[in-house]
Amino acid sequence: MTDSDASSFTLNPAPDAREAAIREAVELALPVSIADLSALVRIPSVSWDAFDPARVAESADAVAALFRETGVFDTVDIRRAPTDSGELGQPAVLATRAARNGRPTVLLYAHHDVQPPGKDEDWDSLPYEPTVRGDRLYGRGAADDKAGVVSHLAAVRALRDTVGDDLDLGLVVFIEGEEEFGSNSFAAFLDENREALTADVIVVADSDNWDVDTPSLTISLRGNVTFRLTVSTLAHASHSGMFGGAVPDAMLATIRLLASLHDENGSVAVEGLTTRPIDTPEYTEEALRDETGLLEGVQPIGTGSILSRLWAGPAITVTGIDAPSVANASNTLTPSVAVRVSTRIAPGQDAGEAYEALVAHIRAHTPFGAHVEIDDVNTGSPFLVDTSGWAVAAAKDAMRDAWGAEPVEAGIGGSIPFIADLVRVFPEAQILVTGVEDPHTRAHSPNESLHLGVFKRAITAEALLLLRVNDRGGNS
Q1: 16 catalytic, yes or no?
Q2: What's the number of CA atoms in the CB half-sphere (13 Å) around residue 190?
Q3: pTM of the predicted model as reported, rounded to 2 decimal places
Q4: Which of 126, 178, 389, 436 can bridge 458 by disulfide, Cβ–Cβ 3.0-4.6 Å?
Q5: Ramachandran angles phi, psi of 417, nearest 5°
Q6: pLDDT per position as a tens digit, 449-464
Q7: Same domain, yes or no: 388 and 376
Q8: Active-site residue 178, yes or no?
Q9: Annotated active-site residue in 19, 36, 113, 249
Q10: At what angle do helices 146-163 and 452-470 cross, to 10 degrees?
Q11: Is residue 294 a part of any domain in this protein?
């Protein structure tokens, strides 16, 4: 069906019996869903260059097998697309089912690759050994984003079991294999598979919820600008006792330069990085402390409401540093230091414009005439959801019914840069950003976990949404 046709549809409430059947199907299949998720967690599918790509391929095979077993899809393939360097990216799973009788098509996105695990000793249980403690499932990828993969799978299964031969909804499942490593082949994948991926609604299951009892629909995301900054002051190391006090070492210059990025309140002090005025729900400093582990006596940074700082303003973090380690430190002036700078930019700001502002600031604030080099640059555009479409209303209704709580329209401080590519290739599609995480998930960190109650409610909400879209009537 065409996008103009889809926009003229009205949502017909599904009969209570079918909605009850959806809920029952999700409930009865929950142990299987948890088992499927646990099996995926056991596969260490880290997509970074330093890790074994065979494990990502193994993960893609496992995901493809799960969607084939549903019997719902016309095709289920594993596909790769080239990166900018010409090499093939990591394997993605693409499953398609053509719409019937004029129904809309919904694309379900998640990713099966995961972050590196870090040190085993920082975990309370091994990162690739899924472990249930209390009401949470622990393991790398248990939430981000293999739970997103299985939530799509479980919703499709529940829909199949409820409507049977009456399933007319078009479905596309796109499970990416390199989101955690920058989605380097994402744009090419969209271009090469444009026809198969075309949909009226796109559900991106890679975000979080307000808390374990309250769902969120993400309506804004910050963009990002990341790069490596190398600061050099010497052609070679020199004795710190003989020359210290007259010769600036690279560490001193780097510290001075990095300090200029923030003011005395910790707010970003780079001219040209913008803040977007927004209204935010109430969120206390106590909640921030609880969710982040902020140490006693350490104060939050920035000004304005806490959520406006997290959702609608810039943030700059040094996420890595290459310098002599403490264990290997010698009494020398360090000639060169490299740092990784990660900048989050406010919704509404162009990523290229933000990068130029950062470069201008660095050039203007480099002390002692130090030499600076900026390379390995990556940018991602911020995102604002158009909340006026029927799909947003339908998603919020499904969340409300599944969770028994009013959904929050939330911003996210993080970035999902590939959404800009989805908007570029499919400008008429309505994009819904949902997820299975909560404030205590600790995605990317040791002891990542999934709240099993959130998992069940997220599956139910998506299954109800798919049922209602499947039952959409004719043109109104």
Answers
A1: no
A2: 18
A3: 0.86
A4: 436
A5: -60, -30
A6: 999 999 999 999 999 9
A7: no
A8: no
A9: 113
A10: 50
A11: no
What does the pLDDT read at residue 373?
98
Number of C-beta neighbours around residue 310 at 10 A = 20
194, part of any domain: yes
Direct distance between the N- and C-terminal alpha carbons of the chain, in angstroms, rounded to an integer: 15
**Do 258 and 191 fall into the same domain?**
no
| Closest of 396, 278, 263 to residue 347, by C-alpha | 278
> What amino acid is encoded at 112 in this protein?
H
Scored b (16 or more CB within 10 A) or e, 159-177 reads: bebbbeeebbbbbbbbbbb
CATH of the domain at 457: 3.40.630.10
Distance CA 59, CA 40 (A): 7
> Given the structure tokens 């499904």, which residue do they identify?
398
**Among the options 178, 179, 208, 462, which is catalytic?**
179
Angle 390-403/452-470 helices, nearest 10 degrees? 130
Give the separation between CA 163 and CA 72, rounded to whole angstroms.
Answer: 12
Domain of residue 142, residue span: 3-221+382-470
**Residues β-bridged to residue 35:** none
The residue type found at 201 is: V
User: Per mean pLDDT, which range of 103-107, 164-168, 384-388 is the poorest?
Assistant: 384-388
Mark whether 447 and 344 lie in a shared domain: no
